Amino acid sequence: MATSVVLQKVEKRYGSLDVIHGIDLTIDPGEFVVFVGPSGCGKSTLLRMIAGLEEITGGGLLLDNERMNEVAPAKRGIAMVFQSYALYPHMSVYKNLAFGLETAGYKKADIQPKVKRAAEILQIEKLLERKPKALSGGQRQRVAIGRAIVREPRIFLFDEPLSNLDAELRVQMRVEISRLHRQLGNTMIYVTHDQVEAMTMADKIVVLNSGRIEQVGAPLDLYNNPANRFVAGFIGSPK
Ligand code: ADP
Ligand code: MG
């Protein structure tokens, strides 16, 4: 069962700096939602608030209709994939995948099938004994995604996961992440400043600008009916 996400008038203030100004948004269970917008508009801040890595200073966050504002990150059932892979360099791929489960107290016998399944999904079964330095950029990014999969989260969050990869690999990983979504069926929220990624991957695009939503809609809706010049310019529609 996939999870719904609701933001109700969510605000964020860093000290005296207001960066998110009352965002209302509903994400349906199993949707692939892409947050797009220029650098500094608040995409990462929104993701971090959903993950519980950043305090929500106003409004409410609901997962499956349950208020999450005060729930610890580890108890939200969310896994996040970042742009920097942050793999442990001295550990094998297997260990990188298993480590989070070990520290969470899982038994070895329970960890092995979870790692095996994630490795199969990402087609990295043959790389399990390697160290990260013996992997290509794309393989490292797969391991980083694998670390999210082994935790069996209800929601996946991606913060510009492909921006360190070259153009060809970006296209390939885009296709793989879309396939992962179809295969797992989880709710996924994907942040990017790349319009092509947004247009090709999203069920629903959320266009952000200076901490506010400019428009929400399916890719073609935004392209054909941009609400304003900002959306038109950002999505690249002719208007
Ligand atoms: P994006 O991911 O869209 O580039 P961010 O969410 O990182 O945007 O940042 C939104 C705004 O909040 C920016 O003005 C940024 O400088 C500011 N900001 C982000 N993190 C912090 C922080 N920890 N402390 C103070 N200001 C921050
Ligand atoms: Mg960011």
TrEMBL record:
Does the UniProt entry include the keyword Metal-binding? no
Protein's UniProt keywords contain Cell membrane: yes
Q: How does it sit in the membrane?
A: Peripheral membrane protein
What keywords appear on the UniProt entry?
ATP-binding, Cell inner membrane, Cell membrane, Membrane, Nucleotide-binding, Transport
Any one GO MF term held by the record is:
ABC-type maltose transporter activity
Q: List each copy of the ABC transporter domain by range.
A: 5-235
Q: Where in the cell is it found?
A: Cell inner membrane
What Gene Ontology cellular-component terms does the record carry?
Answer: ATP-binding cassette (ABC) transporter complex, substrate-binding subunit-containing; maltose transport complex
The record's family statement is:
Belongs to the ABC transporter superfamily.
User: What protein name is recorded for this chain?
Assistant: Sn-glycerol-3-phosphate ABC transporter ATP-binding protein UgpC
What species is given as this protein's source? Rhizobium acidisoli
Q: Which gene encodes it?
A: ugpC
